[in-house]
Amino acid sequence: NDGNNEYVFLILDFVPGQSLTNQLLFESPVERRANFFSQLIDILVELRQTSFPALGSLMPRTDTGPPVVGDLRSIPLNELRRTVPPTTSVREYMESQLQIVSDTLAAPVADQGIDDMKLEAFAVHFMEKDLIDASPDDEENGYSLYHSDLRLANIIVNDELEINGIIDWDDASTVPKQLFSPPPWISGVDNQSFMALHLHAEFRGILLAKSKTNSICGELLKQWYAETNGEPNKALYVAHIIRYPTELAEIVARLHKRLGLIAKFGV
Prior knowledge:
Layout: E1 18-19, H1 22-27, H2 30-48, E2 57-59, E3 68-70, H3 75-80, H4 90-106, H5 114-132, E4 144-146, E5 155-157, E6 163-166, E7 173-175, H6 194-211, H7 215-224, H8 234-243, H9 248-259
Antiparallel strand pairs: 1-5, 2-3, 4-7, 5-6
Helix pairs in contact: 2-6, 4-5, 5-9, 6-7, 8-9
C-alpha cells in the first residue's frame, strides 16, 4: 500500500517437470506406473494425517503462524458465488453440501428436458440420506486437508513419471474422513472411462500392497474398497457428487446398476 493504491502480489515457485497426461501415464512401463501410484498414495497418506480443528478452506494468517480454517471455497461454490462458514459439525457440513448440490442443479440449463429434470430430482432424493449421513457424534478429532482438484494436469512429473509436485491448491479444504478420497480419475467411480477400466486395478493393487506395512493405507483401503470384488464403496460416490454436483444423475445411475436396484437405467 503506497498510500493511494493497494497492490496484490502472487508468489509463485517453479516446479520442474511436466503436467501428467493420459498418454504419458498409459505409455509408461508398468514399473513406472507402479512407482507413480505408490508416490501418489504416499501424498494422500500425508494429507490424511494432517489435522485441523474445523471444516473449511485454509486461509493465511495476518502474522507468521500456520494457516487458519476460514470460509469454505470450492468450484461449485464459486459457480454459485457464495461461501460457507467453517464448522466443527460433520452433519452441518454435509447438510450444507446437500444444499450446494440442490442449488447447483436448480440453476437453469439451456435445452434441459423434463425427463432430465425428473432424473435429477430423483437422484437428489436417492442420495439425500448419504449426503447428510455423519459419524455418531457429528464431530471428529481433527479434519484432514484435501486437494479438491487433483486432476492429471495438476500433477507435475519428470521423465521417469516421478512426482515433482502438486499445483493448484487455491481451493484446498479440510473434509470429514468419509469424504477423503482418491482423485476421481482413478477412484473407480467413473467406471466408463478408459482410465478406470485399465488403471484402477493397478492403483488398488498398489494400495493393497502398501496396506500390509502402513496402517493408514489399510484404513484408506477399507474406507474406499471394502467390497471383495474391488468395487468402490458408496462413500466414494458421495465424495464425487459433492465435488461435481452436475454429474449427480449419472453417478446415481451407476450406483443403481451396481447395487442391482434396477436392471437398466439410462442416462
